[in-house]
Amino acid sequence: LRPQQSLTRDEINALKQFSSEGGRIVVQGEWLNSFTQAGINAENALLTSLGSQLQNLATNVMTTSGGSYATAVAAHQVTTGFTQLWFNASSTVSPGPNDFILVHALTGEAIVGVTKVDPTPLP
């Protein structure tokens, strides 16, 4: 799914409730040429609506033929047992002060982040 418009208030509140009940939400971003600016805007609006300051910067990282390794995988509950990840391409992310960078590309850019969801429903 490559959304081109923001989710509705009810959809966001359903995700907030899911998270508050212990569910995990995974949002995978893409870079600009693959996702379009509308998709980047929709993703960043979703992250903001969920209470996150993490943002997709829409830059292209690691587009080598066959993919690239990301060996800088941080220790975290979701990475237990991981030693490396394989990506064909990714976009950089910009964390907020309460976000945690989970994976850095071989070139050093942050490409995967973990953020908390504010469970307070949108009015």
What do these coordinates show?
It is globular and about 40 Å long. The protein contains two helices and seven strands; from the N terminus they run ααβββββββ. The protein has a three-stranded antiparallel β-sheet, with no helix packed on it. The two termini are 26 Å apart. The model has no long low-confidence stretch (mean pLDDT 83). With 123 residues, the chain is of the alpha+beta class.
SSE topology sketch:
Blueprint: H1 9-20, H2 32-49, E1 55-56, E2 68-70, E3 72-73, E4 85-87, E5 93-94, E6 100-104, E7 110-114
Antiparallel strand pairs: 1-5, 2-4, 3-6, 6-7
| N-end to C-end Cα span | 26 Å
Q: Name the average pLDDT.
A: 83
Strand percentage, roughly?
15-25%
Radius of gyration: 15 Å
- The number of helical elements comes to 2
Task: Please provide the ordered H/E string of secondary-structure elements.
Answer: HHEEEEEEE
Name its key features.
single chain; alpha+beta; 123 residues; two-stranded antiparallel sheet; globular
The gist of it:
The protein has helices at 9-20, 32-49; strands at 55-56, 68-70, 72-73, 85-87, 93-94, 100-104, 110-114. With 123 residues, the protein is an alpha+beta fold. The two termini are 26 Å apart.
